[in-house]
Every structure is written in structure tokens, then in C-alpha cells.
Design brief:
Elements: E1 10-13, E2 16-19, E3 26-30, H1 47-59, E4 64-67, H2 77-87, E5 90-92, E6 94-96, H3 105-108, H4 112-124, E7 132-136, H5 144-160, E8 164-167, H6 174-184, E9 192-195, H7 203-212, E10 215-218, H8 228-241, E11 248-250, H9 270-284, H10 286-300
Parallel strand pairs: 3-4, 4-5, 6-7, 7-8, 8-9, 9-10, 10-11
Antiparallel strand pairs: 1-2
Family: Belongs to the metallo-dependent hydrolases superfamily. Phosphotriesterase family.
InterPro entries: Metal_Hydrolase (IPR032466), Phosphotriesterase (IPR001559)
GO molecular function, one term: zinc ion binding
């Protein structure tokens, strides 16, 4: 790869680029809008409910939300623009593709070059630009679709500088993802965010991924009956004690209407700031909490954006 001209680090929001240092208190993985055939009847498609949720998040001190909803899953980018303007919350949108089970066959049967072009268009020339590429692994490994989409994402990253966010199925396969993206495809690990680490509380795997240089997103408090809540403190404490507090991110990952605080059963994005943040501050200290909610996401989602040519 030829060295790129250095540009200021900025975060690409739906209202335009902002200096990384202006992102503020961030929900690093969530969804205001989402639909999937895997979640029939639970679509996040109510713009008013999204507005209520985002304003309540703002009232609790939230300043930014990163929506990981990729192409073909109801991103509602025009609504994201309106909500960002109305609430003053920085909203970052995604391009990319999820696992093939979330799509009809015609939506996933594209070649790598065409996918990369679509991702680059979303990141650089779309009326509402994405600020990251979302892709997904499989359970303890990578299938052909995952390899295709990650290869396209890597090509788009090299052309634009965009961060890449990865859904890890039940928190597994982190090193397989990093071996492909950062080894074979030469994406710098500091531009990779691994999601759902809390769903597989394997402390050794967490340390290996952090040691490799990726960001680790613990993002499951909105899921009913998941073990992410009671394991979260131990996972974060172990990583912080091992010296990886600068790699940690937190998000709500609200994926269904029932999981919203506004009109649902909760806890939604609000839980991060109303309940989780003060508990974590008491147990792990304010310095780490400032890093997790402010400093780390400001680095994880920043880029030296390029035109994509």
C-alpha cells in the first residue's frame, strides 16, 4: 500500500464530519431503525419512538450514537438526519452487509468488487453518508459470505479510511476475523471494532483481540435473558487490569421494538447512562468510564477520510 496523505481525524456523522474530539458521550453500538426477516413483528421502524428514545438518551447526557444497521436492513438514513438535527445527538450510520440469513438471495449474490463500490458510495458520495462499514462473522468461524463481505469491506477501507465494525456471532471467532481483516487483508487493527464480546466471556480470547489492537465492544444489555449483564463487570475489570482499558467500548444494541425504553419493555439505550454508567464508575473508577464512553469511541470511529477514488 502506498502511504496516504495525512488528514485530520474526523468522525463522519449523518450531518457531516466532526472533529473526533467533539463526539462526546457515546453509545458505541445501537440501532434506531432495523428490520430483518429473522425478527418478524419486532421491526424498529417507528420514527416517533426513535425520537423519544434518542431525546431521553440526550437528557441523560448522551451526545453520540453509532447505528450499526447495514444495507438492506432498514437504515432509514433520512430519518437519522432529522433525529440528529432535532435532538442534537451525533448519529453515525453504517454501510456494509450482515449475515446472509438477513437477506433475500438476490441481495447477497454480488461480487466483491461491486460490494466494495456500494460501500464506498455510501461512505463518500451518498446524500447521507455512512461513517463505518458493518460486516459479520459466523459462529466460531467465517463462511463464504463473511469472507466475501469482509474482503469488500477491506477494499472499501483502503480506499476511504473507514472503520470496520464486526458482528461476532455469540461473541465468537474474534481471532479468525482479525486474521482475515488485519492479516490477509491488511486493515490496521485500530480500525476494527469487534462487537458482542460479552456474549462469550472468554477472557483469554478478549485479551488476544485487545492485544492485537482491535477495539472491543460490549454491547448486549438490551437482550432479555442474556448473560452479558452479570458477566460484564468481570470482563471489563479483567481487561482494564491487563492494561487494555483504552480498547473498550459500550453499546446498547437495541434490536427489537420490545427492547426500547420508549414504548417497549426496555431497557434500551437509556440503560447505558441511567444504570450501567454509575455502577461501572463506582466499581471501576471515573477515569476508565471517561475512556470507555468518550475517549475510546472518539478514536475507534475516527478516520483520515479519503475520497474513495
Amino acid at each position: 500500500m502506498q502511504p496516504q496523505e495525512s488528514r485530520p481525524l474526523t468522525i463522519r456523522t449523518v450531518l457531516g464530519d466532526i472533529p473526533a474530539g467533539e463526539l462526546g458521550v457515546c453509545d458505541a453500538h445501537d440501532h434506531l431503525f432495523l428490520r430483518s426477516p429473522r425478527l418478524p413483528g419486532q421491526e424498529l421502524d417507528d420514527a416517533q419512538a426513535a425520537a423519544v428514545e434518542l431525546q431521553a438518551f440526550r437528557d441523560l447526557g448522551g451526545q453520540a450514537l453509532v447505528q450499526w444497521t447495514p444495507r438492506g436492513m432498514g437504515r432509514r438514513r433520512a430519518d437519522l438526519v432529522r433525529l440528529a438535527r432535532e435532538t442534537g445527538v451525533h448519529v453515525v450510520a453504517a454501510t456494509g452487509l450482515h449475515q446472509s440469513v438477513h437477506y433475500t438471495p438476490e441481495l447477497v449474490q454480488r461480487d466483491r468488487e461491486r460490494l466494495a463500490e456500494l460501500f464506498v458510495e455510501d461512505l463518500t458520495t451518498a446524500p447521507v453518508r455512512a461513517g463505518l462499514i458493518k460486516v459479520a462473522g459466523g459462529f466460531h468461524g467465517l463462511d463464504a459470505h463473511a469472507r466475501l463481505t469482509m474482503t469488500a469491506a477491506a477494499h472499501a477501507h483502503h480506499r476511504t479510511g473507514s472503520p470496520i465494525a464486526v458482528h461476532l456471532e455469540l461473541g465468537t471467532g474474534a481471532m479468525e476475523v482479525l486474521d482475515l481483516l488485519c492479516g490477509e487483508l491488511e486493515v490496521p487493527p485500530a480500525h476494527v471494532v469487534l462487537g458482542h464480546l460479552g456474549r462469550s466471556p472468554d477472557s483469554r480470547a478478549h485479551r488476544d483481540a485487545a492485544r492485537a489492537g482491535a477495539y472491543l465492544a460490549f454491547d448486549g444489555p438490551s437482550r432479555t435473558h442474556h448473560a452479558t449483564d452479570w458477566r460484564l463487570f468481570d470482563c471489563l475489570a479483567a481487561l482494564a487490569e491487563a492494561g487494555f482499558g483504552d480498547r473498550l467500548l459500550l453499546g446498547g444494541d437495541t434490536t427489537t421494538a420490545a427492547a426500547r425504553a420508549a414504548g417497549g419493555e426496555g431497557p434500551g439505550a437509556l440503560y447505558l447512562l441511567s444504570t450501567l454508567r454509575p455502577r461501572l464508575a463506582r466499581e471501576l473508577g471515573e477515569e476508565l468510564i471517561e475512556a470507555v464512553f468518550v475517549g475510546n469511541p472518539a478514536r475507534a470511529f475516527a478516520a483520515e477520510w479519503r475520497a474513495g477514488a
